[in-house]
Amino acid sequence: MELPKEHILVCLSSAPSNARIIRTAATMSQAFHCSFTALFVQTPGYELMPEADKDRLRANTRLAEDLGATVETVFGDDVSYQIAEYARLSGVTKIVIGRSVAARKHLWGKPTLTEKLIAIAPNMDIHIIPDASTDASFRPQKGKRKLDLRTVLRDWTVSAAILTLATMAGYAFSKVGFTEANIIAIYLLAVLLTSMATSTRSSYILSALGSVLVFNFFFTSPQFSLRVYEHGAPMTFLIMIVTALIVGSLTDRLKSQVKQSTRAAYRTNLLFETNQMLQKAPTEEEIFQVARNQLHKLVGRDLAVNPGITTGGKNNATTYLLKTSAHIYGSVTMEGAEPLEAFENSVLLSILGECALALENRKIAKEKEEAKLLAENEKLRSNLLRSISHDLRTPLTAISGNAGILLEDSERLSPENRRQMYSDIYDDAAWLYNLVENLLAVTRIEEGHMKLNTQPQLVEEIVSEALQHVSRKKTEHTITVSHGDDLLLAKCDARLIVQVIINLVDNAIKYTNPGSHIHVSTKEENGFAVLSVADDGTGITDAEKSKVFQMFYTGSNPIADSRRSLGLGLSLCKSIVAAHGGDIRVADNVPQGTVFTFTIPTGEVELHE
């Protein structure tokens, strides 16, 4: 039984030792010859990460990509849970993660990421790489949120307005007899609305504190004073403040999760759209165009997508590769000094991976098509050699035998026998000549070397010329000719059209019994000269009608003269007629037999005065 294939997952971080952990995971993936994924869990605090840590994270991400990893980004607050869930859904068998030397100082201290991951995924094969040599002093730093004064003032104004409306509603409720609990609920709702309508944390904190103060000032005894006489009121205020802060914090976290969900949905839609566009892109140029359009839609920057590896013309350009594990198909050069965020970088790498896979699939399909064409050509070559070796041997043996008898015993043969042998030698030589002519014509057409010498020709003369060169066995058949228009002209290469008629008539002679009737007719129809060759033989089945024009197809009908055919005549006829811009077809001849009909453009005689 085949063992399940390994899949190694390494966790990305901004730690200095993360580069060593990535290299260790890459070495493991090479040893196991398995899939390799680098995962970054983006938390809401990512935006507050110091630029130095962000730069280190980008460098680690680029290192993982260069070592062959598929870089993925997920979003969530609980890093250990996101890692374990991704590993479960993606079929990961081994997780490689670093562990800092700093551990919990107390049993009641917060568990480390490694401890939480082991607890969540106890059955997962987790490889922990100690960080003692490089990270003993490293601690992730929380950056400070950059406050915009206009944003702060706007949020505080919105918070004050909502608090004012809540106070007016509370005053109206108190007049109609609602209890203080109902009024407190109004202020909690005000904190919730403030958290939803503003973007700074200070807004809902001030709203929570302001709600308590305003409630104390307007709705507790003594009114219009911040002093409290009622027993238990301080505890009520404390509970009110804590509740308001919890409500605001939960709402703020919910907004962050909604933002992450929106990003994930955008990524899914963009990748789905990219996949659909790639399926409709049949050429390599169109695949590069899809990559260019989708990446521009994502990052909104000037970029160039080119086959091969190129570098940007400016110092601040960044180059990404369109590559699979086996081949590099192109590169993307993006202008701009501002580095991409982890989300944008993850989506960009996913789009590049989709485009590289499409290029690889196209390359594989092209190789299969070339291999198929090569196999078909080899098959045609084998069939041709086999048919020629067989069919040339039969007439050559007859010619050699008859010539030998004539050389040795000519005087003892009667005049009738000698004439019959001469006739047989002539027929066999004529058959060989016709075979060689067909072979040469097919070769010229297949190689594109046939040049048409088209001139206005009288169709009646073409037919007459062709019938003079058909098989000598035509005397065993009744051949008739009819012309719908005696002055019908066709613009064609007369030599080639004569060969078409000879092949069709010889075909009718060959596949019909002696005494049969063969009728050649011509007419003009819709600007084309229509020529038909009909016989009253056994006919052709519907299944064979679609194959008779294929090269080397000889059919199943018995041949009257027992001489095999290479199956080149009708294929040659089709090629010649198509080169003239006409059409050839086969149909049943009513009431019995077969009729071949082909068309060539009509022509007019040019008078030069």
Defining key terms:
16 helices, alpha/beta, Rossmann fold, 53% helix, elongated, 609 residues, five-stranded parallel β-sheet
Task: Give a description of the structure.
Helix content is 53%, strand content 15%. With 609 residues, the chain is α/β, with parallel strands linked by helices. Among the domains are: 129 residues, Rossmann fold (3-Layer(aba) Sandwich); 112 residues, no CATH class; 152 residues, Histidine kinase-like ATPase, C-terminal domain (Heat Shock Protein 90, 2-Layer Sandwich), CATH 3.30.565. Helix 7 packs antiparallel against helix 8. The longest helix is centred in the middle third of the chain and has 68 residues. About 1% of the residues have low confidence.
Give the topology:
Layout: E1 7-11, H1 18-32, E2 35-42, H2 51-66, E3 70-75, H3 79-90, E4 94-99, H4 113-120, E5 125-130, H5 132-135, H6 149-175, H7 180-197, H8 201-219, H9 233-279, H10 284-299, E6 303-307, E7 318-323, E8 328-334, H11 342-409, H12 415-446, E9 455-458, H13 459-467, E10 478-483, E11 489-492, H14 494-510, E12 517-525, E13 528-535, H15 542-545, H16 569-579, E14 584-588, E15 594-601
Parallel strand pairs: 1-2, 1-4, 2-3, 4-5, 10-12
Antiparallel strand pairs: 6-8, 7-8, 9-11, 12-13, 13-15, 14-15
Helix pairs in contact: 1-2, 3-4, 6-7, 6-8, 7-8, 7-9, 8-9, 9-10, 9-11, 10-11, 11-12, 12-16, 13-14, 14-16
Please compute the radius of gyration using only Cα atoms.
44 Å
Structural class: alpha/beta
Give the class-level CATH name of the domain at 450-601.
Alpha Beta
Question: Largest beta sheet: what is the strand line-up?
Answer: 3-2-1-4-5
Q: CATH superfamily of the domain at 450-601, called what?
A: Histidine kinase-like ATPase, C-terminal domain
